[in-house]
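#struct-pred

JT: dropping the chains for the assembly here, can someone run the whole complex?
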Amino acid sequence: MDFANAIILLLNYIFVPALAYGSQLALGAIFVTLIYGILRFANFATGDMMSFGTMVTILFTWYFQSLGISLGFLPTALLAIPFAIIFMASYMLLIDKFVFKYYRVNKSPPVQLAMVSIGVMFVTQAVVRIIIGPSDRRFFDGEKFLIRAGEFKEMTGLNEGLAIKSTQVITIIVTMILVSVLFWFLNKTRTGKSMRAYSDNEDLALLSGIDPKKIVMITWIIAGILATIGGALYGLDKSFKPFTYFNNMLPIFAAAIVGGIGNPFGAFLGGYVIAFSEILLTYAYKKFFMYVLPESMEPEGLVQLLSTDYKFAVSFSILVIVLLYRPSGIFKGKIL
Amino acid sequence: MRKNLNVIAAYSIMMGLIILVGIFQSWNIALSIFNLCLISAVMTMGANIQWGYAGLINFGIMGYTALGGLAAVLISVDPVQEAWSEGGIDILMSLFLIIIMVLAVRYILKRYKKSKIRTYSIASIIILGIIIIRFTAEPGIEAIEAVNPAKTGFLGGFGLPIIFSWIVGALFAGGLAFIIGKVALGLRADYLAIATLLISEIVIAIIKHEDWLTRGVKNVIGLKRPAPYEVNLQQTDWFINLVEKFNLSKLNLISDLSDRQAALNQFVIEGSSVFVKLCYSGLFLVVVIILLILTQKALYSPWGRMMRAIRDNEEAANAMGKNVVKQHLLIFVLGSAIVGIAGAMLVTQDGLFTPGSYRPMRYTFLIWVMVIVGGSGNNFGAILGGFVVWFLWIEAAPIGLYLVNLTTAGLDDSHFLKVHLIESVPYFRFLMMGTGLLLIMRYRPKGILPEKIEIK
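RK: done, full complex below.
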């Protein structure tokens, strides 16, 4: 019985939250990696593009709520996301046309494009803050929990409760669907294959008649989709605050690099690697050991490897280690 | 003279703008803008050495700035005797252990060839070391943080004049840069940018949460000043006489004696803060000028020529027998050290150290905007960038307010759009910086004052 309690404890505090957080990171990391692989620059505006997408989602959610439209037990935001995606994709294409295209056509070095993306970051951040303000926003409605801790205890008769938030389940399901569709698109369709070819070897791809304009356009549209959904899911699960989104750029970068930059599947797994290690290393295991070990061996302290203050530092340390020993990432990306 | 016309023109316009602020807003604001412009100029010089001279991208400026600030705290604060006696030994023990650990790792690295066993043994030494250090340091840290937590709760510093911290800050930042450089300098440019950005974030996390060293988010306030205090100035005779002399024409207009005294007091209060700021300006100006002379000399020296050669064609320079790796490391350390000076200067001016205020937007990306806008590779350009961008950063809110009022003039004062826009005026600075950066990158990619190298 104690063992079951211990397992539920880990599930409740580590596994489920890490899975949800990892999915949110994974979407961002695929976004970074796609831009890096196909457009060949590190996009420092990632976090702010995600916050822009979330902001549009929130605005649509408010609009639907004012019309009285809702999805019952599901959050209204799910209905708003498709509209936000359309908006976001056009925003991305607009930015590309007015900002990035010039440097791409001139074949500027990647560093210059990264600098330009910092300019885009400033502008996007300003637009978000001017439109919706810098404060915390919650836009979740509908049923909050799928399983409440109390209900779970009653059901199973265990001491530990397992609470599963509906946003966590939605996050995981949506991520799985989105990522499978994306991989199917990249691996099976003609356009997806040409995108991969373009990422592998630009000259060869151009020689074999691949239209670069189309590739770039589709990349930005996919980026828009990923940014909106990733951002909106994070906002639903936690809350929306422009500054947090800007900061999230850092673990997202870490995830993309750990997975091997330019490799979407690596980025997907990298998100989970980062999320799990952040939570595993900062969780206080005292209660877990109380269940598992006999009473005489119970630990005195919190048995916490690192204080939660160092949550961010964990992902960066992993990154540094990966950079030192496998500069191409865990799953062979581009060699940098 | 002719050649430098654009430099002189740009700087006179900049000075004119600051003087305009002095006349229309107040001299206090103008001087605080000027001081921060000088500090920004030091930071941009540091970034410019790395980016402009050597083409190294460093997005870790925030981390070095914070380390400089930490140096200011550690140098100037008086030591907390009680904390030292409570937990000092534990801390020294851990420090000793860290040194042993580093030496052991170095020994293994030197002694054995690269193999799986070596990697694993190093990893195990580090992990074991961290665990042992945690156990030795924990009681000490707890004891130190328990000593009068509302006021101290940390070890304090050395109680030296704060000016020394400018040098120590440079050493701290340079030391960190040496470690980072060893690890990360082999990476490709944009990868290096990400790595340095993340490492600076780790530095901030440590400074924020190691309360025994820095008081963390509880902040350290009331640092000693190299300049006189306003309160003391307001009571010294020579200063009052000086202020009286300056404002004689205005004071003579007032005939009533008590009114005249009240007016004089007001002038003295205003004058004292202006005077203090002027003292800082003087100190900062000295630093900027010394650094400018040094960097200019370096730029035109054989060493500077070599750096440019490495920047423009690494492989060719390597083939000519230049040690690219070593030079990159050197310039990375030098540039970061200069940023460290700026960090210490910043804390010196503010008189307080607030780890929570270090944000990448303000301390990394803004500095980069300054370098790019001013003109990378040109020291005068970088300094000018620091001035222009900081000026706009501060004055963006008033300008934004003016623009909002202009564009929404037709709307009612309580119209929701107008109210909303006026509330969000502070964020116009981001918009301004972003569009400014994008426009400069597009239409004047070499900055306001582009790099020009003349052979002397």
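JT: nice. Chain A has a mean pLDDT of 87. Chain A has one domain: 2-325.
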